[in-house]
Amino acid sequence: MKLQSYALGEWYTPPLDGSPIKDASTGETIATVSSDGLDFKAMLEYGRTVGAPALRKMTFHERAIMLKNVGLALTKAKDELYELSYQTGATKSDTWVDVDGGISTFFVYSSKGRREMPNQPWYVDGDVEQLSRGGTFLGQHIMVPRRGVAVHIDAFNFPVWGMMEKLAPTLLAGMPAIVKPASSTAHLTEKAFKYMIDSGVLPEGAIQLICGRTGDLFDHLTCQDVVTFTGSASTAHYLQKHPAFTEKAVPFVAECDSLNASILGLDVTKDSPEFDLFIKEVVREMTAKAGQKCTAIRRTIVPRNLVADVKDALIARLGKTTVGDPRAEGVRMGPLASLDQREEVINRINDLKEYCDVVLDGTTEFDVSGGDYKAGAFLKPTLLYCDAPLETPEVHSIEAFGPASTIMPYDTTEDAITLANMGEGSLVASLFTYDPEIVSDVVMGIGAYHGRLVVLDRTSAGESTGHGSPLPHMKHGGPGRAGGGEEQGGIRAVKHYMQRIAIQGSPDVLTKVTNKWVSGSKELEMDAHPFRKTFDEIKIGDTLHTKERTVTLEDVEHFANFTGDTFYAHMDEEAAAANPIFGARVAHGYLLLSFAAGLFVDPAPGPVLANVGLEGLKFTKPVYPGDTIKVRLVCKQRTARMNEDFGEVRWDVTVTNQDGDECANYELLTHNTRVQ
Ligand code: NDP
C-alpha cells in the first residue's frame, strides 16, 4: 500500500513505491512512503490563499468548537488507530498516550479557547497603556493570526499526539498547517488525518499532509510562515541553516533530544514513600514506549548512600518487564520503532558503556514474548552507573533514545543541581522529596535549564500525571539542547502562531480595534435603560448616568449594624480621626457597591439574568458621610457564548462624588438573554 499525501484539497498517491514502512515486531512491510511529484510551492500557496482566509474569518470560539468536533470524529476512529499503533511497536497503554492523549489535547484547547479567548478573530493582549497625560493617546497590544502556513515536522514516536499537539494551537490561532510525519510511523498519522478530513469540520485548505520528504518546500517559505520541528538535534541544526531561517527570519521552533533528569532528594530514606515512588517512576519512564519518549528519564540522580538500594530496587522491577510483540498476552514493553532505531540505540549505549559500569545489560539477544528477536526491533532495558558524573560530561550528552538510563550519585543538593544542569537544557526534570527546603533550592537551582519540573511526594503521587506526560495546559519545551521551543502551555502556545502588534491611538481607535470600550471613548446615549436591552441590542459604549444619592451617617451605622462590619474607621470617631488615610469616619466600600447597584439597577424582570461577578474593584477615594455619589455604567464588552441563549456583558462602573472625583471603579459581569 502506498501512503497518500493530502494536497490542494485532494488525496495524492505517488507514482513510485518509495521507502518501506515495516511492522516494528514482525518486520513485514506494511506500506511505502514517498512524496514524489508533490508541488510543495503550490501547497504553501493553497494554505495561504484558501485555508488561511477561511480560518481568519472565524472567531476563537468558532475555531474552538471546530477542534472539539474534530476530536469527536477521531474518537470514533480509535479502534482502527489502536490496531495500526500496535504495528509501530506501541503497547495499549503507549497508544492510549498517543491516540487518546492527542484527542484530549484538541478537547483541552477547545475548552481553553472558549474560556480564555474572546469570541472574535483576534486576541487582545494585556491592558491598555496610558501613553499621554490627558488620556487621549493610548496603546494596546493585540495579536492577529500570521498570514502564512505552519509547517509541522513531527517525530516518529507519537504519530497521532505529535501531530495533534501542534495542530491544536495552530488552528485555534487561525493559521493553516502542513503536517509532515516521520516516515517510519506515517501510516498511523495518515489514518488519523483521513478521519480529520472526512469529518468535514475543517475549512478547505486548513490542513494538508506530506507523507515522505519535504522536497523544495523550505525554498518557498515567507516571513509569515512558521516551521515547528520535533526530532533529533542534528536534523534541527541542519534544517536551521536553510536561508528561509537565516535570511527571511521564518520562525523555527524546535523540540529536540534532551537528557532529562530525575533527582531523589537527600531527605529520602529507603523506607520513605518517596523512595518507592521514585523507583516506580524511573521504571515507568524507561519502559513506556520502550523509552522512546522525548521526556523519558535518562539520568537518575541519587544520594550516594542510596545507590545500592536504588540499583537493587530497579533491577528487581525492570526484571519483571515482559518485552515482546504488543499484540501478545502479558507484554509490558513493545519493540523500538525500527531495526535501524535499535541499532542506533545499541550504539549509543555502547558509547555510554565507555564511561559507565553496566548494572543491567539489555543489548544482547533474548527470547521475545510472541515475537522474533531478529525480525522485530526488540530491546530489553539497560541500566548504567557512572561513579563520577561531575567529571564525566559525556554521560550528560550521549542520548540513547530507548529503554536506557544512567544512575549518578551525589553528595549535596548543590551537586544534584549541578548534575541536572549539566544536561545543558532539558524538557523536564523530576524531584522526589518531602522536604520543602529542598524543593525551593532545586527550583531556583535548575529552573533556568528546564522547561518543566515535576515535584512528586506522598501527597501528589496518587493523582499525579507523572514525570513524562506533557500536558496541554502546561509548557512543553525546554531551553538549550531541548531546542528552545514551547509547543504547549495553554494559550501561550497559540500565541506562537500569531503576530503581536502594538496599536497606538485615541480611546475611540482603541475601542474599535479591541472591541472593548476604553475609558475616554464616546459614550452612547440610550433611549432605554440598559437592563431593558437584550444581549443583541446592547452596544459597546451604551452608557447610563444615574441620579445622585447622599450618604448619611445613619446609612453607615445602619449598614455596620446590619452586616456586622463595625470596623473602627466606620464606627469610632476618635480612632478613625487617627487613621492617616481617612482622618474621619468613612462609608464602607461595600456600602458604596450596594448603593451603586441601587442607583443603576432596573428592578423589573427583563433580559438581565444574573450578576455573575465583579472584577478589578478599586476604591480610589474615601466617601464621607454627607458626600453625594452617582454612578456611570458603560457597556465595556460583549461576549456571545456559542450555542447558548445568553451572552456575557462586561460593564465599566464608576462611582464619583459631588466634586466629580472617582471614588470606586470596577467591572461588573452580567448574563443577558439574547432574544426576548
Ligand atoms: P529525525 O531528526 O531524523 O527526524 C525527525 C523528523 O524530521 C522526521 O519527520 C523526519 O522525516 C524529518 N526530517 C529529517 N530530515 C529532514 C530533512 N532534511 N528535511 C525535512 N525533514 C526532515 O529524528 P528521528 O525521528 O529519526 O529520531 C531520531 C532521534 O531524534 C531519536 O533517536 C531521538 O534522539 C530524537 N527524537 C527526539 C524527540 C523529541 O521529542 N525530542 C522525539 C523523537 C526523536 P523522515 O522520517 O521522513 O526522515
Descriptive account of the structure:
The protein contains 19 helices and 25 strands. By secondary structure, it is α/β, with parallel strands linked by helices. It folds into three domains: 5-121 and 147-256, Aldehyde Dehydrogenase, Chain A, domain 1; 260-472, Aldehyde Dehydrogenase, Chain A, domain 2, CATH 3.40.309; 523-673, Thiol Ester Dehydrase, Chain A. Helix 13 (436-446) links the parallel strand 17 and strand 18. Helix 2 (60-75) packs antiparallel against helix 5 (161-173), helix 3 crosses helix 4 (92-116) and helix 3 (78-87) runs antiparallel to helix 6. The longest helix has 25 residues, at 92-116. The relative contact order is 0.10. The mean pLDDT is 96. It comes from Kordiimonas sediminis. Residues 540-655 form the MaoC-like domain. It holds the Pfam family Aldedh.
CATH C-level class of the largest domain? Alpha Beta
Q: What overall form do the CA principal axes indicate? A: globular
Task: Work out the strand percent.
Answer: 15-25%
Range of helix content: 25-40%
Q: Which fold does the CATH topology of the largest domain refer to?
A: Aldehyde Dehydrogenase, Chain A, domain 1
> What would you call the quaternary organization?
single chain
**Low-pLDDT segments:** none
Provide the spatial order of strands within the biggest beta sheet.
14-15-16-13-12-17-18
Mean of residue pLDDT? 96
> Which ligands occur here?
NADPH dihydro-nicotinamide-adenine-dinucleotide phosphate
Taking Cα atoms only, what radius of gyration do you get, to the nearest Å? 30 Å
How many DSSP E strands? 25
State the domain count.
3
Q: Mind summarizing the main beta sheet?
A: 7 strands, mixed
CATH homologous superfamily grouping of the largest domain:
Aldehyde Dehydrogenase, Chain A, domain 1
Could you tell me how far the N terminus lies from the C terminus, measured between alpha carbons in angstroms? 58 Å
Q: What's the CATH architecture name of the largest domain?
A: 3-Layer(aba) Sandwich
Helix-strand makeup class: alpha/beta
Put simply, the count of helices is: 19
